[in-house]
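Quick start: read one record
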Amino acid sequence: MLLVLTSVSTFACTNTQNNNLKAVYQKSIQRVNQFDSELPENYEIIDFKSKALAYDQLVFDFEKTGTLFPLIWADSTNDAYGISAYVGDYRNGVDGSQEAVTSVAAVLSASLLGIDKSNQNGHNFVTPLNVYFNEEEQVVINNPSGNSRNISMWYMIYPAILFTQVSILYEDEVLLRTNTLKTIESWYQAYLVMHNLQDYDFTGFDFKSMTPYRNNVWREPDSAVGISMLMYYGYKLTGETKYKDAAIESLKYIEEKYSGSPMYEILLYFGPYLAAKYNQEFDTNFDVNRLFNAVFNGNSIPRGGWGMLNDNYNGFAVSGLMGSITDGGGYPFSMNSFASAFIMAKTAKYDTRYAASIGKWLNHLISNSRYFFPNYAKDENESMNNSEYASEAQAFNTLANNVFPYEGIRKSGNNKSPWFGGDPTVYNWAKTDFSVYSGASMGMLGSLYEKTNVDGILKIDLNSGDYYNQTYPTYLLYNPNSKTETVKYTPESGTVLYDAVTENVLTTNAKGEYDLVLEKEQAVVIVELPSGANPTRTENLTKVGDIILSSSQATLNVLNYQNNAEVPKNFKLIVDTFLNNPTDEVDYYEVVFEGKTTQYTSNSLNLTGTSGSKSIIIRVYTKQGAYDQITLRVRVL
């Protein structure tokens, strides 16, 4: 059945048959759909860009004086500079102890906000990042004194991704680019080893012996996703198809070979984004929804409970924040929260079916992230007001003006709920729980959004951090309010406004302010095109010239049953498909049930099952190449 898109809403199934339901275009991200409300309690959006700029001035100042300052030192041993992970870190000033997840992330964040870190106050803060490249092993690692034999996967792969992104922004840094390409090639060789094993379920990879290893404590199978990101960059930087093939194949491992959620720390955040990107650019059929669920749902196999919080700690909303949903009742982390938004928001650019859910999630995350900062915490529930170093911490924070976040927020700690703090003072790593490494990612979050004239509606920049695909200015706007709203939209450039959700031109004359009308819970992905631009659809892609604006999508809906519904042995599924391309139509449906695959040319699917709890995989294929898949669990009586 072909439907013409008029508005965007979230689809909800029903327990029993209800043939009056209509198929809808937007796909719900399960855990986001479970939020109690469209906006979190005490909703407030703070200016993360200003915080990140202030952070940069405080951290990269060798002459800064005052309690627990400076935070940076000259590493004469390695001809570099060091920034410790925490304020009051006992490693501060120890050459070689600095970490890439702090220094490289801080350079990237500032660069995203327009600071030239290669020439700032007489210093080049970019070139010294080469200290994180291990010459012996030909790969970027997390600190200058380490090696791949004593560090886990994510502590190598994530710094390598950050390092590569900085290299993309600073093309004139020749050594940085050289070391980036060497690192990518080293990981390509590691990929070949693990691909041949058909296994990425390891703790680390020894680049000296070129073998993966396990420490019998934990494993990090989501390394496959991080490797995929590096391989994609390798393909874009060199044009070599071996990297493209590796990018696709390593992501396939998560979808085809690994059962359950492979989430360990942060690398799986790249999964939904890469799946959507590859589907559009490489014509793959990765299951974006499954990857969102693997990230958010908290059912990680290697690290149980790791996912997205959906909770309220005695008046402090934490829904949307990232961390553990089980550790002490819940423990979101500031770095993970800041970085996750930056990484996953861009998924909406490549798969607009998730625009509304992503918009809803970001509203919660950005608003609730303010609780990581001391001035939004509760004084008597802060670790740094209940510590032997409280006077030093408070003196520092007065100078820093609440710029540095706590590492995390525990649901309970010290017999109080919530407990604002982190691990440093618990494990005696530092005098404070103020997290320099977490603050290093604030610029990523700050680069992502700006407020509009309507409270609750943010303008999300989907080009921020989307390297090699920054075409025309592209923004996500979502209306969480219970009524239609009008946003005063001022284009950055161009006069033609194209909505990638509906694949329609909204106006060809957007000069000055444009009144953008958004219905309740509607999302748009606005692409700003130059005057006279004429979007052209060819099969499932809409382009201006060679530049892809959007891809046509199919959204499959089951109209008469929801998950875990009870069904008789002979039952019928009524399905419907929403297509945002009016020239496309359904070709056929495919159902996998009890080990048998059956094709249907109608939307009435007759099934016969044996008693018990069963999974049904339903797929739709359109004549112009669009595809969707859903999994429905039923209990056959």
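The mean pLDDT is 93.
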